[in-house]
Amino acid sequence: MSPETTAPRSLAEALRARDDASLSALLRSRPDLITPVPTDLTQLATRAGTRASVVRALERLDRFTLQTAEALAVAREPATYEELLGLLAGDDGDPAATAAFPHALATLREQALLWGSDDRLRLVRTARELLAPSPQHPSPTGLGPTVGEATAGMSPGRIQEIVAEAGLATTHDSVSAVASLSALFSDRSRMSALLDEAPAEAVDVLSRLVWGPPYGQVTAEPASHLRWLIARGLLLPTAPGTVVLPREVALHLRAGRAHRVTQPVAPAVEAAAVHGPGAVDTAAAGQAYTTLATVEELLKDWHEGGPPVLRAGGLSVRDLKRTAVALDVPEPVAAFWVELAYAAGLVASDGEADERYAATPAYDTWLELPAAERWARLASAWLAATRTAGLVGGRDAKDRTLSALGPGLDRSAAPEVRHRVLVLLTELPEGASPDPDSLLARLHWERPSRGVRTAPDDLRARLARWTLSEAELLGVTGRGALSAQGRALLGLPAPAGARAAEPSGPGDKLPAHHKRRGAPPVTVPTPHSPAERAAAAARAAALLAPLLPEPLDHVLLQADLTAVAPGPLERPLADTLGVLADVESKGGATVYRFTPASVRRALDAGRSASDLHAFLAAHSRTPVPQPLAYLIDDMARRHGHLRIGAASAYVRCDDEAVLNEILADKRSQEFGVRRIAPTVLVAQADPTTLLAGLRTMGFAPAAESAEGDVLISRAHAHRTPPRQAPEPVPDGPPVPDATLLGAAIRAIRAGDLASTAPRKDDPAPGRPGDGALPRTSSAETLATMQAAVMTGEAVWIGYVNAEGAASQRVIAPIRVEGGFVTAYDHTADEVRTYPLHRITGVAELADDQL
């Protein structure tokens, strides 16, 4: 029999028979297996069978593939292809399960959870231990132990009594008796005949146990129908007062099915409503504009230094509430915006002794970008972030409140769930919004929780719900449907003619012919490299740019001391107007109000009355109202009439009557004001306090420097030192790229060649070696090396490096001199030099090697 047709006797042998493409698929689906790279295929097989790796692999199986593994865990070992299929399709042969079974089996085989030929299928031992039923860990199948397992501690006499009561011939040993009983319970016709004799109450008991749990309680004197079942082994005792339904009996009652309900087909994502693609993109663009405005407003609110950092890290509840009020949004939404700015590297702690949050230098760079590129940077940061704003306000494992920007918000599964949710939206017709329940059902089918039938409140479900709401806030989706820029962000091309379609009403239902039941899963690779992510963000920005409103260079001045900005303003205009007036309301149009305090703020910033008049005249499409002109002139005339300096502080004014008025006002007594000259007062208060106090008294003083010049006050832009955006917490090892996979497979195969290459003196030259290092004397080693140099043959050596690590290698010696051997190392695929004293021994390879 040729090696290709020889059935593997272990997982290592099964892996050894694979080609490079199959090994690449295994390492790509289970990247933890090459961290670090195994030395050979035996070590790879060992690592693939470790508990942590197997658990991780099982958690990434879809529902039907996991059900296939669970069925194999309760099948006899080894099982045949037909036996395993029968456990999934049942005696009636479910066509859907039959059609999906080959793919599920191939997936288990590809991920090294199953090995062996189709007539000898074996589950990896660790997977079988995890999935097989036991009293401590019931199986999701609801099945109990086999007859052999349940009777393991039973006396031989009792076993013979059960065999006789079941109508079978007694035997001379317990093993054959148990086998006879198992054969009876597995025979459909004989088992049906036995149950036809059962009392009706006994059948009712079996029906209550058949789908699990298989354990029941009985009294010391059970009823007659229970005694009938126990006597014939249909219920077997496992402990005093406890009986179990044997697996063979349950499978007969289930018509051969291991699961009550199999799910071979992924549930389709249903559409709740359909909208025109143009309407979707327009709505998403509006939300994208709101995203930019909100983030800018947040950072403007923290311009001079944001809220303090809690000792444990993060924002306090009070500061989060203040931020929510400033942004005019609910607190959970405010937490999302704060976390988004943090994920994009626009906000960080300043690291000072009195630590506060502030904008980073990257924020200033971000502001200079075009609007669409600013949005793409935010959306890309959200898609890749592991920090989860939805957890804010919850509790951690130690019952501590989770705060925005604080520790404990990272969830490594968040990027994968976000990406998958958005990809599932592409299964719907263009412009369709999903039904959330069907979307969650699909996600749960793709990544079910082992042993849990439904998990509506698990982490993945919550992440999916948060993804839908956050994507809508960001403008990745519009009206619940994936936008063109959202598709580009995933690396997908925008549908042709997406914006040409006429928008339909928000309540339009999806026609029945648009619903795609049982649609095959859509696989969209995640952009992993920075270059791929940058390219996807650039495409998204290019699609969004035409949909964003153009910045305006004008406002509309009103007679009631307000100005209306009918759209987004150009940055210089917006910045100046933000100093000269206060924002009264926001929305599609922003309303600014001019007040004495806001005009004085502009004058404090160094603007003169003539500058303000010229600015308003240049940027208003309506004439400057007279009340506004009077307000500016009045505030400018009074501004700087009083001068305040340091004495602690002084007040000087050419008009002695004004100083007399200050001295006569009782409110000035708290500042310790007194006259030192006809036009000068001094105070014990500092200049800043005195300046604010006199303004509350109705005066309009201006601060001056030590040289007597009027001080121009501008908002101090507090910035943190340069900060990097937070790195996402990886969900296990990264998926290896093609270069790493190729190098890893070459190293594994070379190491496997060294560890399994048969020697000429091997008593079984056709079989791999046992992994022991060759042992020869120094003289034998030197002689064999010199002979190999002359013949050009490869040899097998054992080698111990300077750190004491032992390894096996296959080398082709080139020369031997000075206590060193220079050789081509087939294991490392390069020429190396080895000290002879570190070689434990050498052996010649069999003639058919290399």
UniProtKB/TrEMBL annotation:
Family matches, as InterPro entries: WYL_dom, XPB/Ssl2_N
Residue intervals of the WYL domain: 780-842
Key words of the record: DNA-binding
Span of domain Helicase XPB/Ssl2 N-terminal: 555-677
One example GO MF annotation: DNA binding
DNA-binding as UniProt keyword: yes
A Pfam family: Helicase_C_3
Region (Disordered): 132-151, 496-529, 752-776
UniProt keyword annotation of DNA-binding present: yes
Protein name, UniProt field: DNA-binding protein
